[in-house]
Structure formats: C-alpha cells, structure tokens
Write a structure and sequence with these properties.
single chain; 290 residues; 3-stranded antiparallel sheet; 10 helices
C-alpha cells in the first residue's frame, strides 16, 4: 500500500506567522506518523505580491521549525499552461463565461438588488455575482474582449451542478460548526465563482484541485476558513475527472481580537519571534501542539 501524501502550500506574499506554523506542523506530524510523504507547494500565482525573498524566508522558517519535505517543490507560476488547459476543457462544455463588470460596478449592482430585499452571500460573506453576463451573445462577448475590457472567467454554477450531480467529501478534521465525517458539498452557495481573470490565468479554486491531483495528494490539511470552499473543489474535481483527497480542516490561530492572523501582524510573525529568542518547541506550545 502506497504511503499517504500530504502537502503544505503557502503563498510567498509575506512572512510566515503562527497560523502558518500551526498548519505546517500539523501537516508534518500527520505525514510522519504513518510514514507518509510531505510535499511543499509554492502558490505564487499573484505575480505582483509574491516575491523571491518571501519564498526564501518560507524555506528558512520551515527548516528552523524542524520541518522536512521532499526536494521537488512545485511552483504554480511554472504550470500556467496546465491551468489554461483545464479552463479550455470546461469552456468547451459550455461551463465558463466571461463577465465584464468592475468590482465597483458589482458593488453598485448588489446595492440595486438589495433595494428589493437581502442579496445572497457566499460562506465568506461576499455577495454572489449579481450580473447577467452569461446571457450576452458570443458577438457581444467577443466585442468587449477585442476592445480590451477586463473580464473574469466564471463557472456557470447551474450548468455545472446539472453535469456533476450530488457531491460529498470525507472530513477527518472539523468545520466551523464542528462538522466532520461525510460532508455533503454545497457549491451552489458560492454562485458563479471566478476561475480566472484576464490578468490572472487561474484562481485558487482551480489551481488547488489540479495541483493536488497531479501531485498525488491523498490528504489535504488546511484551516477551517477553507472548509466550505471544499464544496467548489469537489465540484471542479468531478467536472475534470480528478480524484478527491481526504480533507482535514483544523482550527485557526487567532489574534487578541479573535481575528484570523494576517501576514502583516508582526507580533505573531515567525521571524519576529525567532529574533526574540523563541525556540521551535516554544512555537509548538504557543499554537497548542505537543
């Protein structure tokens, strides 16, 4: 029987903090216990914010924590054609359409919709897409693209659900309300999600399912803030014929105000804590690990 395969997948858009350390240590411990493998993935799609110095700091901090991973590090920026190919497959099935509203226009459209009552929002609290771009003709879409109008490529959720049917996933961690075991996916809660933009060839949703499949990930460990995003990931896996890993969502490390840690929070940054003399064992204690 092949050993289980885990992955830690940070973005090099800032320095690691205690929340990253907690997730990385759980990944490492869970992989090591059954003699499994731990892979490192660098999620660097955002070319404007992801910098080489942050990537180098990730390697340094993880090694200091005592975490070891296999040498072949996957960088998303090196696999843009793979994500484009997946988008093309979904487009050929009539599941992708471009929307042309700016973020400001979407805010205005939501405000108009809410004059008639509450507008639905996704599990993260963001309003669902309020536009009607899916009803534009091919000529109208082509004209806007030829004119250089910015656009987002969205998944037609209604059509996608009709093709995929019912979905679920196996959860060995917990959701925000303690959900565990077999979880029924509810991708419709996200509406017509963005899978790419004119200036960004993929989204987190699309890239993560492709990367997990190509790397043979059997166990995906991440924070509970991504719990309901798994619904979208299960839908994309079904549409693209990709395997689903076992998911393990863990609690978040929060700041003094009870909010999720940010990379700008210096008080919990690993580099700052190291400079103050903290040891790897003390970091484990700070995040509640033995």
């Amino acid at each position: 029987m092949a050993p289980p395969v885990f992955r830690f997948a940070p973005s090099p858009n800032g320095y690691l903090h205690l929340g990253h350390a907690f997730s990385a240590l759980i990944d490492f411990d869970m992989a090591r216990a059954p003699g499994g493998r731990l892979l490192l993935r660098i999620e660097d799609i955002d070319a404007t914010r992801c910098l080489p110095e942050f990537e180098a700091a990730i390697f340094e901090d993880l090694r200091w924590l005592g975490i070891r991973w296999e040498d072949d590090v996957r960088r998303q920026s090196e696999h843009l054609k793979t994500y484009r190919s997946a988008l093309d497959r979904l487009t050929a099935r009539g599941l992708i359409y471009p929307s042309f509203e700016s973020r400001a226009e979407i805010v205005r459209l939501v405000a108009e919709r809410e004059k008639e009552g509450p507008w639905p929002r996704d599990p993260d609290g963001a309003p669902l897409y309020p536009g009607n771009a899916k009803h534009l003709s091919r000529a109208e879409r082509a004209g806007k693209i030829a004119a250089g109008v910015s656009f987002a490529l969205r998944l037609d959720m209604q059509r996608a659900l009709a093709q995929a049917g019912g979905l679920e996933w196996q959860e060995t961690g917990r959701g925000p309300a303690g959900e565990t075991g077999t979880i029924a996916a509810a991708p419709q809660a996200w509406g017509d999600v963005v899978l790419a933009r004119k200036e960004t060839p993929t989204s987190y949703h699309l890239a993560v399912v492709i990367d997990d499949a190509l790397q043979g990930i059997t166990h995906a460990v991440r924070g509970e803030d991504l719990f309901w995003s798994t619904s979208v990931h299960r839908l994309l896996q079904a549409l693209l014929g990709l395997p689903a890993p076992i998911y393990h969502h863990h609690r978040l490390i929060l700041d003094a105000d009870g909010k999720k840690l940010s990379k700008s929070t210096q008080a919990t940054g690993l580099r700052e804590l190291r400079a103050q003399g903290a040891t790897p064992n003390e970091i484990r204690k700070l995040v509640g690990l033995q």
